[in-house]
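for the writeup, i need someone to sanity check this before i put it in the appendix. the sequnce is what the collaborator sent (i think, or maybe the updated version? ugh). structure was predicted straight from it, no edits. if anything looks off just tell me and ill rerun, i have time this weekend
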Amino acid sequence: MSVASMPATRHDAIQRLIANIEGVVFGKHEVVKLCVVGLLARGHILIEDVPGTGKTTIAQTLARSIDCSFHRIQFTSDMLPADILGVSILDQKTNEFEFRKGPIFASVVLADEINRTPPKTQSALMEAMSEYHITSDGVEYALPEPFIVLATQNPIEYEGTYVLPESQLDRFLLRTEMGYPPREDELRIMRRRDPHHVIENIKPALTANELLELQGLVGGIHVDESVSSYMLSIVEGTRTHPHVQLGASPRGSLAFYEACQALALVEGRDYVTPHDVKTMAIPVLSHRVIVKARGADLSTAAKERDAIVNEIVKSVPLPV
C-alpha cells in the first residue's frame, strides 16, 4: 500500500501507539516519539541516562504496546554468548543435537544495562543486530520479523561495566536520554507508585502485521534532493569538524535518511522537511562521533558530542 493511499489510517495507528506508551511514561513525549521513529525505521535504540529515570519502563511499555514476542535480557558480567543466542543440547531419544533458542529470538528484545556484559557477549549481540540472524555451531538461524533491540545503559557508573565499542554503537539507529520529568508529571509518578502492574495490563496498540505495514511505508516517504543534500552536508560536517577525531560513517548517513523519513511518517506527512533533519541530527549522529578530547565520563562525553553536532547543524545553510 502506498503512503498516499492511507494517510488517516497510518497516522491514527501511530498516534494510538504513542498514546499507549504515554499512558505509562509521563512527561516524555519527545522521547516516546523518538522511540517510535526508531521502531518504524527498523532500527535499534539505545536509551541512556542515570538510574531511576524510566529507561526500562519505556522499553517495556513500547515492547508490550506491540502484539509481538518480547524478551528481557538482564546483562551481567558473567553472561556468555550462549546465554543470549541459545545452545545445542544432545537429545537422549534421537541421539542428535537439538538447538534450543535463547532470548534473542523475539521481535522486541530489551537489553537491560547492555554495558555490564563482556565484549565477547556484546559481539554475539552485535551480529544479531547487524545481520538479523545468529550463528551457532556453524549454523545460521534467522531472527523473527520484525526484530528490534532496545538497550539501556547508565552513563555515569563504571563499576563492573564495559564501554560499548564504536562498531556496536554504530549499529544503533538512534540514541536518546530520558532526563527528569516535569514537576506535575513527577507528582503523577509519585502518586501512582510502582508502574509494573500498569505495564502488565497494557493492551497492544498495534499488531505485528500493522507494524510491518507501517515499516514498509517509511521507504516511500519523499525526500527532496535539496533536503537529502542538506542531510549529507551535516554528516560531512561531523567528518571535518576540528574537535572530531572520527565522524559519522555512510551507515550513519543512511540511518539519518531513514530516521528522517520515519519522523515524517510519525508527524503524518509523506515528505521530509528541513525541520525533521534538524530534529533527528543529534539522536542519530551524536553517538557515532568520536571527539578528540573525551570528557571525564560517558555523560560528559555525550554532552560534548551533542554540542558539536548542534554546532554543525547551525553552521549548515537551510535548503531553499
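The first strand starts at residue 44 and ends at 48. The mean pLDDT is 86.
thx in advance!!
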